[in-house]
Design goal:
The structure is a single chain. By secondary structure, the chain is α+β, with helices and mostly antiparallel strands. The protein has three helices and ten strands. The protein has a five-stranded mixed β-sheet with strand order 1-2-3-6-9. Strands 4-5-10 form a three-stranded antiparallel β-sheet.
Length: 171
């Protein structure tokens, strides 16, 4: 049996892959985790040919059952190392932008996935956040709030890549 943290990671990857597929956006995952888990790339159509446009957005992916879901936001304690990796990246001029994606899973593992002949239901939403600011001096975690309006779905992912293309992150 896989450790629970690996199952959470794999479910979050499946969720993000499904969203990018429906949005028509290329996704690639990194083999090693050096502060980013993958990249989204915009696909452009020229005539009857599709190609990668050159606009990219990296992502750091987290999954948790320990989030607080409030009326307006998702509250999550992000490891300080991950927080600092994200805010340091934003301060590097010319670097590929990066967003945090948080997969919020139900506390009960039996509710994570429901597979039947008719459907595949992956419970819990994904939310995105473009972190900015100064690195934290905290020792273990930084409490973040992700607006629930920043749900990751095909439309919001396409919007994020348009913002990258237009140079207006955060958008």
């Amino acid at each position: 049996m896989l450790p629970e943290s690996i199952v959470e990671e794999l479910l979050s990857l499946a969720h993000v892959h499904a969203i990018s597929a429906v949005a028509g956006i290329s996704i690639s995952n990194f083999d090693r985790d050096f502060g980013a888990d993958g990249t989204f790339r915009q696909i452009t159509i020229l005539g009857n040919r599709r190609y990668v446009s050159g606009y990219a957005l990296d992502f750091q992916l987290k999954a948790s059952t320990r989030c607080q879901v409030e009326a307006e936001s998702i509250v999550y304690d992000l490891e300080v190392k991950a927080y600092n990796d994200l805010v340091n990246r934003q301060q590097t001029i010319g670097s590929t932008p990066i967003v945090l994606i948080l997969k919020v899973l139900p506390y009960n593992r039996n509710e994570w996935l429901n597979a039947s002949e008719d459907s595949l239901l992956l419970s819990g939403g994904c939310y995105w956040l473009y972190l900015q600011g100064e690195p934290s001096k905290n020792r273990s975690a930084v409490r973040i709030r992700i607006p629930r309006s920043q749900s990751l779905n095909p439309n919001s992912l396409s919007m994020l890549l348009r913002c990258v293309q237009n140079g207006i992150l955060p958008c």
